[in-house]
Amino acid sequence: MNHEVARTLLDAYLDGELALSDTLAVEAHLGGCDECRRWLEDRRTLVSRLRSAPVAYPMPAALERRIRAPVVAPARREFVATWPRALAASLLLACVGAWVGHSLPLRPDLGEALVAARVRSTLADHSIDVESSSHHTVRPWLSARLPFAPPVPEMAATGDALLGARVEYLERAPVAVLVYQHGNHRVEAFIWPTAAAIGPGPPARTIEGFHLVATGVAGFNAVFVSDMATAELAAFRDRWRAQAGSIE
Amino acid sequence: MPGREDHRNRWFVDTVLPHGAAAYNLARWITRNDADAGDVVQEAFARALQYAGSYHGGDARSWLLSIVRNTAFTWTRANPGASGEAVEDVAEGSAPDPLHEAASAQEAAVLRRAIARLPLEQREVLVLREFEDLAYREIAVIVGCPIGTVMSRLSRARDGISAMMRCEDKRP
Fold this sequence. Notes:
The complex is a heterodimer of chains A (248) and B (172).
Chain A: H1 3-14, H2 20-32, H3 34-52, H4 61-68, H5 74-81, H6 83-103, H7 110-123, E1 130-131, H8 135-145, E2 161-170, E3 173-182, E4 185-193, E5 205-207, E6 210-217, E7 220-226, H9 230-247
Helix pairs in contact in A: 1-2, 1-3, 6-7
Chain B: H1 4-16, H2 20-31, H3 34-50, H4 60-78, H5 88-93, H6 102-117, H7 120-130, H8 136-143, H9 147-170
């Protein structure tokens, strides 16, 4: 191996990155080349200086806390930050509980988790995992992540827009969440399968700006949560139900 | 049975979060600025959680560092003014660590200045090699170039540092 070639391989030699044949060739050259030996020693010193001085930047503690926050006890964190809403949410629990308590294979306090999920998605500005207005995209995405495939009405025909969907795990039970836009309002539809679907339209509930309406359709229960006026939300629910029924 | 989100979160805490220091260091060296590095890392971790499904085993650190790098470059393109050769603010960023000897802190400050002057493509390779101790093969995957390119960029980076340190060492 000539001097020029050996020289280009010395960094990789120092890093232990050479194949055995090249390693042996470089060593043979080093045995007879003072210049390359000195060069290699200088290089070794430089690398050692880089690695022993506190050159790397340590992560600030505040940043570490920020990146941990989303995965460590998120519900508690957000409820602490928004206790007035949490209060509203706990009041809503009673209402939703009446719908979901008897008819679902879920714990009666699902309602709390459901409303918390709605509040959380707003605060975290993360309401959609799959962004699409097409049920051809949304439904397979959901069924790949859930043990069921919920109805996904697109609603475009009636002037509402399907924005996308996400999956929530509420009380360890999977729930599909469809996100719609109606005018300036967002409507989230929480949907899960049930052996005993509730009626087409139990009375709506309204607490502190959040409105909830529910319906049962073809083996599923759905609860719609929005800040849109109750009558409008109920009308949305009825349109949704009609279209969900027709695509089943 | 815990839900999938529980599984994902536990995987994230056990497998991804431990590489936060590596993520921050890389972001800091690409952006050369504390505040921007913080934004990049936060965005990168959000992406990592969102794209958890794209992790198919293997080295979680390399996977995360690829995301950090992509996030940082997206950020650099969106903030072209901040991606200039911001050599001067590097010295400010290297506040002496009271736990280390003053000489060691000074040595670190000098080395940091030298590294910050390297072109970005050499700088990132050097950082991944010297501070994360990654193999050429792993660096090649993260940076998205052939192993031979990693080798030559690393050599040029060390040449550059070496030349700059010779000047520094001659100072009184």
